[in-house]
Amino acid sequence: MTPSSSDLVFLPLGGTGEIGMNMNLYGHDGKWLMVDCGVTFPKPGRVSADGTRHHSGEPDTQMPDPEFIEARKDDLAGLIITHAHEDHVGAVPYLWHRLRCPIYCTRFTAEVLKKKLAEHGILHQVKLIIPETGERLHIGPFDVQWLPLTHSIPDPNCLMIRTPLGNIFHTGDWKLDPDPVVGHGYKEETFRKLADEGVLAMVCDSTNATTKGHSVSEGDLYDGLRHYIESAKGRVVVTCFGSNIARLLTLSHIAEDTGRYMGLYGRSLINMHQCAKRAGVWPYSAGAVDTGHLGYLPRSEVLAVATGSQGEPRTALRRLATGTHPDFELEAGDRVIFSARAIPGNEEAIQGVIDQLTALGVEVITVDNAEHDIHASGHPAQDELKMLYNWVQPEIAIPVHGESEHMKAHAGLAKGCGIPRTMTGRNGDLFMLRPVPGMQRQKVRTGRLGYEKGGLVKVE
């Protein structure tokens, strides 16, 4: 199946009908363009979009099977990574040998990716191209422009993919955050200009399409987090996603303003902090102390930021909860703040950590029991989706990055915004945009690969 010069198609291999392991293909004039190449971490008992019920014993790290595009890798013009979250970039080191194409990503994402490639010993084999936000590059028959939007990680970008047959606006993960704290913001004018130029299709994040209102801004979290940190009598541990550099910076400012010393616990936190410094998105005036010092400080001067917000085993928070961390032990009167929401499937593991902490006499503050905002989603709620549709005004709305209920709600919302046509499908469906819009269901076989014992295996 090779798209001709009169064809323009969209083909998701992962991330449509599910949240995680994103892999998208655009086809035109004999070539393919891949957008994102991510992993997922399945939970036993969960059912995936393809009907797979996950069980204990299967690989912990899984990704889309690139069989379709691997057979056509000579026609793969390039791979674009929209941002550095694992579900968009995590599969690159495992799959690059099967793709062997140039990779395009902006500065922070490039730092994260370079570290991953180096760990797999392939950094110097990969052609990595780092465009500036706003730049336009020709990748095969596609004219691609990187445009700024906001998300819960530095340097996220949406894409305007221009072809002679029509333009596609690919949002990636996004929100409309007036104060993202770190990295670039966005301008309404950018997207209204796209509408003036004409957008054939908008391929858009559906994660929070069932959530009413507008997402909380990262900039609005300072007061709530400061309240719970400043009012604590003992040590404070905040657990959050390591990739949320804005959250780390907010906590750094709070530490300085409340007379505490901030230390980072957990490899992912430390790695992301280093990448932020190398990419120039971490202010030189902000910092963290050597974690080995925190155990010797008065309890009221300690602010530890730890991995483990999802109850994962072997993380810093789990070790603190079990009293096995080498730096210090939590005591009655200390406080742990969960500055993150549970990813579906992790609720039981998170509750297990909370029970362990409570048994130690530690006070636990979560998003659900906090009276002040301590977490902000990185995805658009309904009001933001409406705003972007009203600005961009595509002819076709294509919901992706969500389970069936999210994409269905998203499609209904797009129709309510006056979008003439919506196309909702799942991995393996071929979305034909030109010459005549339509869909071919399950045109391409899709599947999963898992990483275990140093190699890739098919996940049944």
Characterization of the model:
Helix 4 (107-119) packs across helix 8, helix 5 packs across helix 11 and helix 6 (221-230) crosses helix 7. The two termini are 25 Å apart. The model has no long low-confidence stretch (mean pLDDT 95). Strand 14, helix 8 (267-279) and strand 15 form a beta-alpha-beta unit. The strands form 4 sheets. Strands 7-6-5-3-2-1-20-21 form an 8-stranded mixed sheet. A 7-stranded mixed sheet has the order 8-9-10-11-12-18-19. The chain has helices at residues 67-70, 86-89, 92-99, 107-119, 188-197, 221-230, 245-258, 267-279, 316-321, 347-359, 382-392, 404-416; strands at residues 8-14, 23-28, 31-37, 61-64, 76-80, 103-104, 128-129, 136-139, 142-148, 157-163, 166-170, 201-205, 236-239, 261-265, 302-306, 335-338, 363-365, 396-400, 421-422, 430-434, 438-440, 448-452, 455-459. The chain contains 12 helices and 23 strands. By secondary structure, the protein is an alpha/beta fold. Helix content is 26%, strand content 23%. The chain folds into 2 domains: 8-213 and 378-459, 4-Layer Sandwich (Metallo-beta-lactamase, Chain A), CATH 3.60.15.10; 218-365, Rossmann fold (3-Layer(aba) Sandwich). Keywords: Exonuclease, Hydrolase, Metal-binding, Nuclease, RNA-binding, Zinc. GO terms for molecular function: exonuclease activity; metal ion binding; RNA binding.
